[in-house]
Amino acid sequence: MLGRVLIPHLQRHYTLTDFLHGFYYTWDKSTNRVTRVARRDINIARALQAGNTCYLAFQMYALISLPAKPLDKIIPILSSLIYLSGMGFGYEWSPDGSIIQLINVIIGAGQIAGGKFKSAPPEKNVEQLINVIGVLVKWTEIILPVATGVMVFLFPCKLPFLGSAIFSKVTCEKSLLDACAWLICARIGLAVFEAKQQVHMILVGAQYAIFTLMMGCIHLWGVLGEVCDVINVPFCTKYRQAQVLEQLLNSCTRSRIFPIFAATVPAFQIITAYACVKHYDDMEMTHLIAIFLTMLDSTVFNLVLFVGSGKLYEKGGAYLMGRMRRARGKIETKFVKSLTPLKIRFGSSFVDGLTALRVQHFCSIKIVDLLLLL
C-alpha cells in the first residue's frame, strides 16, 4: 500500500523539521504516525511565523526598488515567491487535526497488527511516482538553499535579502578579497540565515503541498481503484469510504492549501521557464541550476496534481454511469443517483478532466508573452 513507500520520505522530512524546529508536526517513532509537536515547538513556530511575515513584508517592499532590467528581477521575485507560498501554506496558529488524521490514514492504509503491511504492494507506477516526487523534494531541499547561501555570501547586498538593509553602499562595493574579518563573518552569517530560511520554506511547502495535498490525491486514486477495478468489492461500503476520504482531503486543502498551490506553482513554472529560455547564457551556473530545478519541480507537481485530480473526477463519473446502467430496481437506481464523482476542490470550484490542460495552456501563453514583451 501507499504507506509502505511514503513512510521513508516522511521520516526523512520530519527528521529535518525536528532538527530545525518551528514546525507544527512531528513523527512519533513508537507508533509510526504523525502527531503534533510539543507546546514549546508550537510557540517557536508561532514566533517564526510572525518573524517570517515581517521579512516577507520587507521583501515585498524591496521588490519596488529593483532595477528595470528583467534579468536582475528573476532571483528576487523567485525568492519572494518561495516565501509567499511557504507562508501561505503554513499560515495557521496551531496544528490542524484534520491534516494529522489524513496523513495517518494514508500511511496506515494496508497495515495489519504489529505495524506490518499486507503483502500486496502498491502499483509499480504509483510507487515510482512517489519516489520521483520524494527525490525532487530532497534535491530541492539541498540545491536551492546552497545556491541561495552562495549567492548571499558573494553578493550580500543583493535585493531583496536582509543584507541589503544591513550593509552600507560602501561596504557592499567591497570585493571579497578586500573585506575584513568581521565582514566575512557577517557574510557567512547572512548566507547561513538565508539558506536556513529557504530550507524552512521548502519544508513547509513539502508538508502541506506534497505530503498532504498531493499524497492525499494519490491515496484517493488508490481507494477509488479498489472500487472500480477490483471484482466482488462491496460497492456501497467502498464508495462511501472513498467519499469520506474525499471530504477529509477537501477539509484539509480546499480553503488554503490548494488555492495557494494553484496560484503559486504555475507562477514558478512561468517565471523559471522564461528565465531558462531567455537568460540561460547570462546567468551564473548556481542561479541556472537552481532555476532549472525549480522549473522541473513546478512542472512535475503541476502535472501530477491537476492531471491526477482530473482523472479522479473522470474515473468516478464513468464508474457511476456504469453502475447506473447496471442498477436493478428503483432503490438501487436512486442510490446510485445520490452519489457524485469524487471532486478535489479549491475554493468554490473543483478540478475536472480539462483543468490540467487549461493550466498548462495558461502557463504556455504567459511564457510566450514574457519572451515577446521582455
Structure description:
Keywords: Membrane, Transmembrane, Transmembrane helix. The chain is mainly alpha-helical and 374 residues long. The chain has one domain. The strands form 2 sheets. Strands 1-2 form a two-stranded antiparallel ribbon. α2 runs antiparallel to α3 and α5 packs antiparallel against α11. The longest helix is centred in the middle third of the chain and has 49 residues.
As a percent range, the share of strand residues is: under 5%
Shape annotation: globular
The unreliable regions are: none
User: What is the helix content?
Assistant: over 70%
Q: Count the E strands.
A: 4
**Number of folding domains?**
1
Q: Whole-number radius of gyration?
A: 23 Å
The structural class is mainly alpha
Could you give the order of strands across the largest sheet? 1-2
Mean pLDDT: 85
Name the helix and strand elements from N-terminus to C-terminus, one letter apiece: HEEHHHHHHHHHHHEEH
Distance between the termini: 48 Å
Largest sheet: 2 strands, antiparallel
Question: Main attributes?
Answer:
single chain; 374 residues; mainly alpha; two-stranded antiparallel ribbon; 4 strands; 74% helix; globular
Offer a quick outline of the entry:
The chain crosses the membrane at residues 205-224, 257-276, 288-307. Keywords: Membrane, Transmembrane, Transmembrane helix. The chain is mainly α.
Q: Mind sketching the topology for me?
A:
Layout: H1 2-20, E1 25-28, E2 33-36, H2 39-64, H3 70-89, H4 97-108, H5 124-154, H6 163-166, H7 169-173, H8 181-229, H9 235-253, H10 257-278, H11 285-325, H12 329-338, E3 345-346, E4 349-350, H13 355-373
Antiparallel strand pairs: 1-2, 3-4
Helix pairs in contact: 1-5, 1-8, 2-3, 3-8, 3-10, 4-8, 4-9, 5-8, 5-11, 8-9, 8-11, 10-11, 10-13, 11-13
